[in-house]
Design a protein that fits this description.
alpha+beta; Thrombin, subunit H; 358 residues; six-stranded antiparallel barrel; QueA-like; 2 domains; nine-stranded mixed beta sheet; 31% strand
Amino acid sequence: MKVSDFYYNLPENLIAQEPLLERDKSRLLIIRRKEISMEEDFFYNLKEYLNPGDCLVLNDSKVIPARLFAIKKETGAKIEILLINEIKKNFWTVLIKPYKRVKISTILILLSKNSSEKSNIRCVIKNMIGEGIAEIKFFKEKSNKETFKLIDNEELKKDIFLLGKAPIPPYIKNPDIETNRYQTIYAKEEGSIAAPTAGLHFTDKILKDIKKKDIEIATITLHVSLDTFRPIKVDNIEEHVMHSEQFYIKEEQSEVINQAKANSGRIIAVGTTTTRALETVAEDGKVKPFSGRTDLFITPEYKFKIVDGLLTNFHLPCSTLFIMVCTFANRDLMNNAYNLAIEKKYRFYTFGDAMLIL
């Protein structure tokens, strides 16, 4: 199947440039697959579409300040670094921009958040992977010397994060968005370089109301990485390769999910990240505890194993995420839903409105 089969035309003015003042005031499009129907509401009424015994599954990953600014030690040329994955102590996979300005053994000096002054943290390019990706090692420089000293991992990571900014997506042009609005209210485990955006609509009140209705809430942790939002660069879907992302499901959380499923409750995944995690470990209608990585790419021939409902935002055309929701809900139905959202001027992408697919 062609990637172009999943294209739609979105007016640029519908891309939300900032979050709403109140998280739960976003619009909610309810899509029922069996009935082939759609209904409009607001997110604060989410509980009305969930039943007692259902299980809402959240991704509690927290966005790290992964966007760093640096200069080349030799020339002073400006370099931007996006942390992707910590491989081992002080050693990271990163996205470098511009990639052509660096090579193996290039030394970079990290700058302050506003790029106005040099820090004492350095990194050296250890490997060039391609497609903008490199592997680097962080150091702190000894005072008044040209040698490097490796320091304690946790202390160094803390110092690096103090220099970084939240990696707001490039299609959002507003530079003044508060960092906490790019986190879910239940974000806990540091590791993502992009927010699991379906969860940005939740408030404490909504979660309390859901629990009062005897709807279970479970959490998983999937650290959103580069491939969640990187564009597909091939013509055929089957040729696209997903890089893996780290995720965890604790035993007590898997038990909550499995008990709800055994009692005929629906498993409602909050976001495509949660969906990928659950489907990766699902077998015979159950999920198991897990600690590892997933490279699952959900394409049109995929048969869902555990997820009964999906709460998600509106995604980029021709993206792995849009392909996933079309697989879950039927491509024609999703095209109709997106056309309706465009006609009604819904807000799209990261800070946009939501849909609940049942």
